[in-house]
Amino acid sequence: MLLMIFVNDLWTIKGEPEWLGHAESNQDFMGLADIVFPCFLFVVGMSIPFAIEGRFKKGFPGVSTVGHILTRTLALLLMGVFIVNTESGVGAESGMNLPVFRILMVIGFLLVWNVYPRTDNPGRKKIYSILKAIGLLLLLYLAIAFRDANGGVFQARWWGILGLIGWTYLICAMIYIFARDRFKYLIPIWIFFILLCVFKSGLREGETLLNLPHGNFFDQFLGILHVGNGALPAFTMGGLLLSLVSTKYVNRPNRDKVIFAVVTTLILAVLGFITHQFWIVSKIQATPPWIFYCCAIAVGTYAIIYWLVEKGKASWFNFISPAGTATLTCYLIPYVTYSLSSLLGIRLPEFLTTGFVGVLNCIVFSFFIIFITGLLGRVHVKLKI
Prior knowledge:
Distance between the termini: 17 Å
Number of strands: 0
Radius of gyration: 22 Å
Structural class: mainly alpha
Mean pLDDT: 93
């Protein structure tokens, strides 16, 4: 989350190193910004077994858990669509400008999905219900009033980052509901997503291995499920598998865990190297080497963090813990800070937004957002879906 805020803030500066940003569509390259999102999806997958098993341990039935998954997905899709629409600008017909629309949008999200303090007081419960209703009405008004810079209405242009997370979470969480910790089902499903990417991604020459006619039933079916070319669910299924392996063999000697982490990372890196001979590394095209390299980075990073925690260094991460405990809040706060800066006419001097100093500015901004997230959490302002 810290890195996501950082790379998302790079647009505010100029002259930053190429390796920090996104690669172009046809560029055979992978910058830091191209690694953050797949690693986030990997972490989403790691959380799924713990979240679902936690509900089952609390006595929630399967139907309730499926409903919970669907409502979480719907929330992510809704927020994703709102954010995507603002990327097309906000026209004067909306009765407001882009900064005002985004601030109201985030306020609506907070009112609807805030974690309100637990209480047995009927009056307070009623107030919380009223606030949620106000949030829903605010979002409804914004959706109806919205017009983009060209006069277009509110619509699902694409799902945005949150929407992509929502669809991927839905697919993988539903798979886990039925497969649970049975590797004989989960591993073949992960391999299926990998092979789907292999057959549907364009080779260096431009053709795909599975060159079906346009509009074929197979692509239409995958489109309905929002599987894409399989790359995004492959990341989440990879994280899901790593969680299950870590849990199952938690009592094994540390030497075995190190060997597993090193071997798995090397195998994924080698697969990335092999597939790189046939496909470019591209986030935008979601190519196979991008999957393998990012999964190798995710596993390797997890192994290092796991080792640090085992050595009693978990406190090293306390200063960024709000980014993990209030992730969605942390993701949305920059939309408010950018909007407030625009409304107030705040502009940093050019020397603070150029080159190395500009990168430092983005780093400071990232920690500032996490600090604000922590402060909001203390006054019970925290999104949870």
